[in-house]
Amino acid sequence: MPPNIKISVVLLCYNQERFIIEALRAAIRQNDTNFEVIVADDTSTDSTDEKIANFLAEYPAANVSYVRNPTNLGLVANFWSAIERTTGDVIVAMAGDDISLPDRVRMVRRHFESNPRSMALYASADVIDVAGCPTGRKLSSCQPLDGASNRINYADLRPAGNLLAGRPFCGGAASYRKEVFTKFPSLIGKPIHAEDEICMLRAALLGDVDFSPSVQLAWRLHGLNQSFGLGPYRGPRQAEMYERQANMCEQFIADLDVAKTWLGESVQAESRLKETFRSMRADWLLWAACHRPGVAVVRWASALRNLAVALGSWPKALRHAWRPTLKMITPYPLQRIIVAQHIDGR
Hints:
CATH topology of the largest domain: Spore Coat Polysaccharide Biosynthesis Protein SpsA, Chain A
Strand content: 15-25%
Radius of gyration: 21 Å
Oligomer: single chain
Structural class: alpha/beta
Number of domains: 2
């Protein structure tokens, strides 16, 4: 990668009229040069579009492009559509409800210029509340105390909860080399819950994924964040989210098949990951089955059987099944009360 690489900032937004101006201002006023900003509104139904248009009219900038999708694509498809409009070597992901720090683009540039094998960088973020006030919390994947490396590749991935086996990371503070998107074919075409784990796997299949303790973002917690599912909703809408998680596992498997061309078919880690993703997909589909309306015993039994086949063990499947089964038999009104209290407690 040559020095002074070009950075493409991709700012995604949907119904974020309360926060979009702060996010836009932060994206444009970076302490850096040679970067572009792609603002992609996913057909917001509030005043987000109007606020963006007014802001860009008042502060015109040659390096800013704005597109409003004709129809709602969803987070992942909106991200990929915006990527196709970029001309940079590195993609910096931003969201319409967060605030990137002024030095973020500069820090990203320095990282990728200094680390030619790095395909992704997950920086840290300070958590702010709805009003933009610091909460004192921090989102970081760095493990300075337990000796764990802050650089991984595909052989280090442990898919359990997420690809870092429960280790937290902030997709809103992520940056990727363009190859993460160009070296793989288009997505499988099914709705997928989020983009960050797909990008992490692809980056790890291509090279290194790095995690930095440096704070590059103020991440806003407001109860409806993509990272926290559907808030107080339960039932069919939650089932759809779990089905999107299952589709994400299908995408993982498809990407592993593509990576065989440079990993080799006999790579043990690739085989282990694929087997795990199949069981994860079956697990998500069990959760989805348990959130459909009513107590559908036949549907639940079929999903449980598929999970047992994927895991190769009925006892393992039953250990996985007790939590979603409890959700299934708990009345929706009570579930909504429990989840609402959980969100308030955060």
